[in-house]
Amino acid sequence: MSSADAIVVEGVEHSYGDVTAVGPIDLTVPQGEFLVLVGASGCGKSTLLRLIAGFEQPTTGTVRTDGTAPEPGRGAGLVFQQPRLFPWKTVGGNVALALKYAGLDASADRVDELLARVGLHDVAKRRTWQISGGQQQRVAIARALAVENPLLLLDEPFAALDALTREKLQDDLRQVSASTGRTSVFVTHSVDEAVFLGSRVVVLTPRPGRIALDLRIDLPRTGIAAAELRGLPEFAALRAEIGHAIRDRVTV
């Protein structure tokens, strides 16, 4: 494992009983990369993410993050499809709790700074049930960013949101990623989302999930509006290539 590698997956297979969900997979993720895992439903994207997070152990092979075996809840910020906030705390209280748990500065100024990073500078004192689903998901992202772990793992965090909110949060996350330089792994079903967010996209085959396509996304990550980026011919070409890779692997 190179000192520049944030994640190394070597010869990994993972089975549930007699069913092999993933593998074999070999995958290396350099530090600072935004990797998107995409593929048909049931292809093992979330399983691979849980292996990287340390929530599950591979049946065979090894996973290393920052040179060591991953441990759940340590070394990685996690964002799930549901925000999983504490409803008895305020928005700011949810972020402050993450900071306190890590032994970091949990002052109001620090909480406001993190909320402002995801466009929520004015809601710190509200209860979580007083804000929209999209805002709740932004709080979850702010909470994951609160502890400056080198790795950010996101499992379809925008899947349940309406189209407009989803596009806004995609843009927010893209900007936050560019500004922090964290290594990120993002799971999605959406080809458009994969191209928009990723600096690299890996397409997995239907079960068992194996790498069907590993594609570098050479699109500008700063200084361009979302609509302009999506309108680039290069964006359309990458979206088509990834879409073909997924469809070619799905048995009709």
From TrEMBL:
Pfam families: ABC_tran. The keyword Transferase does not apply. One of its GO terms (molecular function) is ATP binding. InterPro entries: AAA+_ATPase (IPR003593), ABC_transporter-like_ATP-bd (IPR003439), ABC_transporter-like_CS (IPR017871), ABC_transporter_ATP-bind (IPR050166), P-loop_NTPase (IPR027417). Keywords: ATP-binding, Nucleotide-binding, Transport. Residues 7-231 form the ABC transporter domain. PROSITE patterns: ABC_TRANSPORTER_1 (PS00211), ABC_TRANSPORTER_2 (PS50893). The keyword Lyase does not apply. This is ABC transporter. It comes from Actinoplanes utahensis. The lineage of its organism: Bacteria, Bacillati, Actinomycetota, Actinomycetes, Micromonosporales.
